[in-house]
Design brief:
Elements (H helix, E strand, L loop, with lengths): L2 H10 L6 H13 L8 H15 L3 E5 L5 H8 L6 E6 L2 H13 L6 E5 L2 H7 L4 E6 L6 H8 L3 E10 L9 H11 L4 E6 L5 E6 L2
Parallel strand pairs: 1-2, 1-4, 2-3, 4-5
Antiparallel strand pairs: 5-7, 6-7
Helix pairs in contact: 3-4, 6-7
């Protein structure tokens, strides 16, 4: 059994994405050369499930792209909870906003366009959940910026962390950095390109 076969089987046995998200995926594939950056239905369902379990009040998303991940997480938020979603690209953020409105969750997502480091510096914690899925060479910088603003029982999710196997130096350095950090514990889950879950040690 190959990794691709396992992912296909997992997707076939996962609750399907909504019709709106399916259209988002189709538009992303048709209009973006970097369409693989979207989390897609399997990881999207994983994120939605985690949010439904965690029930965070404040979420920080670093890297929006066309919006699949933020919409999935917003769908599972408790009443009154919000996501601050950061991205440098106004074009893809506009797509994300449009589909968030169609999905009925636009009022739960505060989209911020600009360098994530600047946005994070302006924000006060604590955040109950942080999802990092942005420029890979800056992962350590994002991590160090958000860890002091993470709630004591909060969780950081870092995407694409299996990239360390494929020669992505930024991800490899990030993985080593987290493993050496005695402030936290982590687990790398091999969903798509890998998602590492990180929490502070008790």
């Amino acid at each position: 059994m190959t990794f691709d076969e396992a992912e296909e089987y997992a997707l076939a046995h996962t609750t399907p994405a909504t019709e709106v998200l399916q259209r988002l995926g189709e538009e992303t594939q048709a209009t973006r050369d970097d369409a693989q950056m979207s989390v897609g239905p399997l990881e999207g369902a994983f994120l939605r499930f985690l949010v439904a379990l965690k029930q965070p009040r404040r979420v920080l998303e670093i890297g929006v792209f066309t919006g699949w991940s933020g919409i999935e997480m917003a769908t599972a938020l408790p009443d009154g909870a919000t996501i601050v979603a950061c991205d440098v690209n106004p074009e893809t953020t506009a797509i994300a906003k449009r589909y968030a409105e169609e999905s009925g969750v636009a009022d739960r997502i505060d989209y911020r366009v600009g360098p994530a480091q600047e946005t994070i510096a302006e924000l006060e914690g604590p955040f109950d959940l942080v999802f990092i899925d942005a420029w890979k060479p800056d992962y350590i910088e994002y991590y160090e910026a958000v860890l002091p603003k993470l709630a004591d029982d909060g969780v950081i999710l870092a995407d694409n962390t299996l990239g360390g196997l494929n020669g992505n130096e930024g991800i490899a350095a990030f993985n080593a950095h987290v493993m050496a950090d005695d402030r936290v514990e982590c687990v790398l889950v091999p969903i798509r390109d890998g998602v590492t879950l990180i929490r502070k040690r008790g």
